[in-house]
Amino acid sequence: MLDGKTRIPPVNVETCPDDVRETLEDQRKLWGTPLYPYLFYARNASYFRAANAMWAALQEDAKCVPRTLMALLNRRVAWWNRCEYCQDAHAAKGSKLGISTEKIEALTDYAKSPLFSDAERLALEYADAMTDTRRDVDDELFARLQQHYDDDTIVELTMIIAWQNAGTRLNRAFRIPSQEFWKR
After folding, report:
1. From CA 131, how far away is CA 137, in angstroms rounded?
2. What does the pLDDT read at residue 133?
3. Which among 50, 20, 46, 15 is positioned nearest to 34, based on CA atoms?
4. Do residues 106 and 115 touch, judged by C-beta distance below 8 A?
5. Residue 98: helix, strand or coil by DSSP?
6. Using 50, 70 and 90 to split pLDDT, how confident is the model at 7?
7. Which residue, among 134, 136, 135, 94, has the nearest Cα to 116 in the 3D structure?
8. Predicted confidence (pLDDT) per residue in 31-49, tens digit
């Protein structure tokens, strides 16, 4: 599956604790194979469980940020961090949620694209400022966020973007490839 494609090999699933193996098996049933990053998280069962719980909390249990906006934010962060896996996975997720291919592909120029709402552009600008380490989230940008979003939504946006940054950087460091979910 990943032989020789990543900087270190994925975990041998047979050596994992039962709960980790069960989660990986559930992924296999859903996607046809375990999700590649989890094969690296599983090298430490505690990290695996924490990553799985954090992903569920930020992606599945989010109360304020629409799932379509999450997919756009996650793909944008993945683009910044050159994470092939997440660019693909979040394009697929966005497509499944009804985001057009045209809009997904327009993310690189969202600021000028008529396909994005003002609120989406602002959230994407915030993701850019958080992700580009040469920039800062300045007071002017934060004030504009507060005009569009309530405090709970800003916290959720921030956590989603920060977590995606962590995940994409891990994936990029290990050179975890795309699973080619999008446009299958």
Report:
1. 10
2. 87
3. 20
4. yes
5. coil
6. very high
7. 94
8. 899 999 999 999 999 999 9
Q: What is the pLDDT of residues 108-161, one digit of tens each?
A: 999 999 999 999 999 999 999 999 988 899 999 999 999 999 999 999 999 999
pLDDT exceeds 60 at position 13? yes
Say which DSSP state 13 is in.
G
Domains of the chain: 14-60 (1.20.5), 67-174 (1.20.1290.10)
**Would you say the pTM of this structure is higher than 0.85?**
yes
Q: What angle do CA 64, 89, 176 make, to 5 degrees?
A: 125
Mean pLDDT of the chain: 95
- 1 C-beta neighbours (distance < 10 Å), count: 9
Give the 3-state secondary structure of residue 180: coil
- Would the CA dihedral through 31, 95, 181, 107 be positive or negative? negative
Longest Cα–Cα distance of the chain, Å, equals 52
> Hey, what are 123's tokens?
């959230």
In angstroms, the CA 35 to CA 132 distance is 26
Q: Which amino acid is at 117?
A: S
